[in-house]
Amino acid sequence: EFEGQDYSPSTTALLDNVEEQWRLYCEVLNRDPQHCYETLSIKLLYNFFDWYLSQKVGKDGRKRNGIKKKSSLGTYWKIFRLVFERAMGERIASKLGRSMRKVIGRLAKKHGLNDQARANRIMTIDQLKQHIEETLSTTRKMFEVGEVRILAVLFVLLVAPAGARRRAIARLRFRDIRVVLARDPEGGPHKLLIRFTPKFTKEYLGAKAQNTYPIPETMFDPSLLLSPHVFLLGILFRHQAFRAGSLTSPDQLKKLDICPGELELPLPLREDLNDTYIFRRAVLGTEGYVLSTNEPISEAMMGAWFKRIGELMGLEYSTILYSLRYNAANGFDQSADVSEALRNLVMGHASSEPFRHHYLGREIGADLWGILRGQRPQQALIKQSGSIGHSISKRRPTDLTQEQSASIATHPTIRRLKTALRRLPPRSEAYRDARREINNEKQRLRRELKQSIIHEWTDNQAVDDIERQLQGDSFTKPAVVDTCRPQGPAQKRLLAALTAPLIATLEDQFKRRDNAIDAVSAYCLVQEGCTTRRPRPQSKDSLPKTPSSGSEVSPLSLAILSVYARNKTERPRRCFLCIGQAHCLLPDDPRVDDLIQEFYSSNGLTRHFKRKHLSKMQADDKIECTVCKMPLAHRMHLQRHAFEIHGTVS
């Protein structure tokens, strides 16, 4: 039990995976894995890694991504050495290790592995501001419930100053955050100070000491979009999270003072929230999306959102959260206020080697020629040119057009797979597997086509711009995107509050901050729903005909009338629960049209009702029919009410 190294769970999972691959390879050779360890040779290692690189299918027949880079193969070899040491109790002979360098190089050439490291371009603070503004303003990416959109912004605002790994921030609990009102030693008004202590940091050979990161409030902040205090306090006031029960509104903060002779006034949070994750995902309930009780948003999901927003911004390169960590590391290195030891402590490095090898930008961040010529270095231009947003353009395509997406069906691979599909008996397991393979291949080809178009767009558009300008024409305008819903009132209020101009007086500055916090709290309650690629057209014929009157009746009012069954055989085709949700929204809210849509048939409504509503209910859950203003005591009561009043069969 106490023998061997104390690896973290993630490292142990890597070791177990490599050990399983070794076992499978030994099965191919019809040899005992332990005996292969004992008789390990360079030829056996070469054949094992060659076999591993050739595998195209993984567990349960799923297609494997495979190793694409030479450095990844080197990492796999290092993990194998740990697997060998765990199994044999001793290290691999040093002579064998030296020979593996040639093996890795030869295998990299044989399998066409890329020998270049991942680009480590930084995301500057100005580009982060643009990213946050795009996150808050876009309707081409929906977050199901407004609070998740706010959490997505708060997440990057905590990653950026700490240079933390994404898992460390994603697993923050309320107990890990402390808010205090601090006395400013340089004079002036008291300032809010956030301290957060990530606990789920990268572990190797045991847990690391925890670092606490302070973020003081910028009193006259030129941009509230970059204020983590506004977003965090918006979340805290939305959940009434302060232990002081009377502290319920942000405008009360300016009334608080610090006891004479003391330096801080803590604003403690409720103890029942200690073990609750801050970054929780949305789950679908019977009446729409709600924030889960304690199910965290995965770091992979945060990374996918960050990447998607980067695409909508018009960035040429895929945005990764590590670009914020790269920016922090290089910023700390260039700052006279941060020592090398402090930089290593903040970044979680034992020495400066990781920074030099992986974080120091390979896009040289200095005006070397200007320095050599004795001129004033153009550092701002050099930093911009080496950042991830140097080629940003709103004209850059972000998605495939309908024609481009449809062209995938004519690809030779898809044609071959469809021909093979027609030879299989329908409804058989082989038929379903073949259909799944076709769908997966289509998705892969769409991704490749999209990346190819984005990659080639910069030079192609540059040539077009040059030709147009030389001919006296103007630049082409960004394509009009009509595939998304308009912003709602709460979203417009949020953006207006966060982009409010800087005000000179302290009292007005407090009001500016408090308005932004209130707007954040209010937006947390907004039901966004899922991202819809293209809005479905509203069918006017599907609405019930009503006698003409002097005033026009709204589509929502007509939809409400259409969900009542006039007899036992009538089957309306609208969901009365969804229309009840729409009834609680403002008339101009863009989600109303989605909620009052009519299904193609009553069977479609039944499937929707079971999947979206009944499946989310427990037997004794209570719900209210908003349309009828009638409380329903339990699930069976809901089903009976749905059938008898609204003609919905379940």
What does this structure look like?
- This protein folds into four domains: 9-110, no CATH class; 125-321, no CATH class; 402-470; 555-646, no CATH class.
- Helix 4 (70-88) runs antiparallel to helix 5 (94-110) and helix 7 runs parallel beside helix 11 (322-334).
- The protein is globular.
- The longest helix has 42 residues, at 429-470.
- The chain has 25 helices and ten strands.
- The model is unreliable at 534-551 (pLDDT under 50).
- The chain has helices at residues 9-29, 33-38, 42-54, 70-88, 94-110, 125-137, 146-162, 166-170, 228-238, 299-313, 322-334, 340-347, 353-359, 368-372, 379-385, 402-406, 412-422, 429-470, 489-498, 506-523, 555-562, 576-583, 591-595, 602-612, 635-646, and strands spanning 144-145, 177-182, 191-196, 213-216, 264-266, 280-285, 288-296, 527-529, 623-625, 630-632.
- The strands form four sheets. A four-stranded antiparallel sheet has the order 4-3-2-5, with no helix packed on it. Strands 1-8 form a two-stranded antiparallel ribbon.
- GO terms for molecular function: DNA binding.
- Keywords: Coiled coil.
Helicity level, as a percent range? 40-55%
Query: How big a fraction of the residues is strand?
Result: 5-15%
Query: What gross morphology would you assign?
Result: globular
Separation, N- and C-terminal Cα atoms: 55 Å
Mean pLDDT: 86
> Which value, in Å, is the CA radius of gyration?
29 Å
Low-confidence stretches: 534-551
Per DSSP, the total helix count is 25
Instruction: Give me the secondary-structure category.
Output: alpha+beta
Q: Within the largest sheet, what's the order of strands?
A: 4-3-2-5
Q: Strand count, sense and closure of the main sheet?
A: 4 strands, antiparallel
Number of domains: 4
**Extended strand count:** 10
Domain C2H2-type: 625-646
Coiled coil: 428-455
Protein name: C2H2 finger domain protein
InterPro entries: DUF3435, Integrase-like_cat_sf, Znf_C2H2_type
